[in-house]
């Protein structure tokens, strides 16, 4: 009897969730927090992440970064300017990262003593939203140039975020960006989630973002989004629970 596409998808996600849960437990024992960064292409997340890494290095914090793309090592070269350990992860055409890929790089590369691993996911707000990587913190980023209604166009991504970061705020005026409308759309899919405004060019929001990450590393409670993935049961039921137990 042939399985339906839905059954195949659920089986793939269930396997990924199991691997992610094991990876999270292992990293927790090692004192490592994973920050999963999701956005569409062109949001400015690489530039902002580079600023955050540089600030962490200035403070002597043991951080590292994995950056994922379908091709090229351009982003790894950009992020390496921060002085933090950085590795490129090429997905060979896959539009998202999965827990098995992250585990392989954690086991073979992660520098000893790292306390925060930033993972820059593939530029895509659809597929990556469904895959738990074993992260402690899921951050969804959006530029003011992308339009106020992005959160309701991509409800799974924004609805599964522990933190939302608004980027390129220096362009809000020229873009005619309506901040109030944007925040209303965010609240519609993820009530109570914090929105951090940022501008990599000026450095605005960099310290705030780093402090939020460090707070989670140090055990601060995490916002519980309504659509956060959790390990699937045998009946493949979805549920409303956070990535961090």
UniProtKB/TrEMBL annotation:
Q: Which Pfam families match?
A: cobW
UniProt xrefs under InterPro entries: CobW/HypB/UreG_nucleotide-bd, Hyd_mat_HypB, P-loop_NTPase
Q: Which residues form the CobW/HypB/UreG nucleotide-binding domain?
A: 34-196
Q: Where is this region: Disordered?
A: 220-245
Q: Which residues form a coiled coil?
A: none
- SUPFAM superfamilies according to UniProt: P-loop containing nucleoside triphosphate hydrolases
Q: Could you tell me the keywords of this UniProt record?
A: GTP-binding, Hydrolase, Metal-binding, Nickel, Nucleotide-binding, Zinc
Q: What is this protein called?
A: Hydrogenase nickel incorporation protein HypB
Organism phylogeny: Bacteria, Bacillati, Actinomycetota, Actinomycetes, Kitasatosporales
